[in-house]
Write a structure and sequence with these properties.
With 382 residues, this protein is of the alpha/beta class. The protein has 18 helices and eleven strands. The protein has a seven-stranded mixed beta sheet with strand order 3-2-1-4-9-6-10, with helices on both faces. It has a four-stranded mixed beta sheet with strand order 5-11-7-8. α4 links the parallel β1 and β2. α13 runs antiparallel to α15, α13 packs parallel to α16 and α15 packs antiparallel against α16. The longest helix is centred in the C-terminal third of the chain and has 18 residues.
Length: 382
């Protein structure tokens, strides 16, 4: 009896992987329910990790996953196509794909591409930028779990299956995964800026709350993360609407979640092309960086902010500034760097971030540390 129940579960799930049209999947799910009832057995995925826990949700009429793709006026059709093709290679779990478009032009372009992807549908939103689109997608989503995938980024073939099943089994609310920078896997990124407080190997495979230092060390990349939708709603999580939309969501989620998962195996690739990065940077980069920080500080609940160490905002500024420096190219690179440095120093000084010499991420360098600690250095010399 046990063997029959187990093999029936495997075969039901395996055949679901061939169905991509939502209506056909729904009809097949109903047929599976009828078969289980007729034979007085239950769906049993736990005996083999390759059998989807999420299919157990789907046969009860529950949408396991929503994938939100923010297709803004700064996105291109090629970037969207790259992400949708990566999703097509994901056999499980069943999902809805919401492509968020701000206007008629982007919606028309997205519709042409989505026509060959049955699970995708267009959702209109008002606002500007990736963060506003993701927030609108969170409101429209119906899945138990939510992933936001920036156009141009890709996910590995087993990423969504592994992440969703892990959160179901561990009853966790939030997951972050390592990733590759670049679509050819040029550089491994653990998803954290400090390995020491994170204890990466110890954290993998278990569901625990991230300590404050671990939460602060978490990278703000949007795509390699998964959220339980009920947790997002209860905690009031939102993406920022500036040039660094992932900061706010990642820090708030990792501090608020009592059970989080970490995956050290890269779950996908973050597109680092100039075309992909342009989606994040409307207007002046330095000004938008501080606007993102101000928004994060205002939105983060005081009881969560109180857990963070002194100088946490400056650590985020230094991290973002370092990324922006790496993206400054010729012509007039020195002049651009000087203007960026001046704006960063003034922004940090205005917000009182230069009062203390507090630790930054490893490898930031003495120059940036000095730049962001001017007030403390002046007091010391006087």
């Amino acid at each position: 009896d046990t063997a029959f129940e187990n093999i029936a579960s495997r075969l039901m799930f395996e055949r679901s992987c061939a169905l991509h049209t939502p209506d056909r999947r729904a009809r097949y799910a109903q047929a599976c329910v009828a078969y289980l009832k007729r034979n007085q057995i239950t769906y049993q995925p736990g005996w083999d990790s390759h059998i989807s826990q999420a299919w157990g949700l789907e046969i009860t009429g529950v949408q396991p996953l929503s994938v939100i793709i923010p297709f803004t006026e700064r996105s291109t059709a090629d970037l969207l196509q790259v992400s949708l093709q990566a999703l097509d290679r994901q056999a499980a779990p069943g999902r809805e794909i919401l492509i968020l478009c701000p206007d008629v032009a982007t919606a028309t372009a997205a519709e042409r591409i989505a026509a060959t992807h049955p699970a995708a549908r267009i959702v209109r939103y008002s606002g500007d930028g990736i963060g506003a689109a993701c927030n609108a997608g969170l409101t429209a989503a119906q899945g138990c779990f939510v992933n936001c995938l920036v156009p141009g980024d890709t996910l590995g073939e087993m990423a969504l299956h592994d992440w969703v099943d892990a959160l179901i089994q561990s009853e966790a609310d939030f997951a972050a995964a390592a990733f590759h920078l670049g679509l050819n896997g040029e550089e491994y990124h653990s998803s954290f800026y400090q390995d020491g407080p994170v204890s990466l190997q110890n954290g993998a495979g278990s569901a625990n709350a991230f300590p404050p230092e671990t939460a602060l060390a978490l990278d703000g990349q949007i795509s390699p993360k998964l959220y339980r939708r009920s947790f997002v709603e209860e905690a009031g999580l939102q993406f920022g609407t500036g040039s660094l939309p992932g900061w706010q969501m990642a820090l708030h989620a990792s501090l608020a979640s009592n059970r989080s998962r970490y995956f050290p195996i890269p779950g996908g690739e973050v597109n680092t092309s100039s075309e992909a990065l342009a989606q994040y940077h409307p207007g002046r980069a330095s000004r938008n960086m501080f606007q993102s920080l101000d928004q994060l500080t205002a939105k983060l609940p005081a009881k969560l902010a109180a857990k963070l160490p002194l100088g946490w905002q400056k650590r985020l500024v230094a991290r973002a500034l370092r990324q922006q420096i790496n993206q400054v190219h010729a012509p007039m690179r020195r002049l651009k760097l000087a203007l960026l440095a001046g704006a960063a120093a003034w922004g940090a000084l205005r917000r009182g971030l230069s009062k203390n010499r507090t630790p930054l991420d490893p490898g930031v360098g003495q120059r940036l540390e000095t730049l962001l600690s001017l007030e403390a250095l002046l007091r010391l010399r006087s």
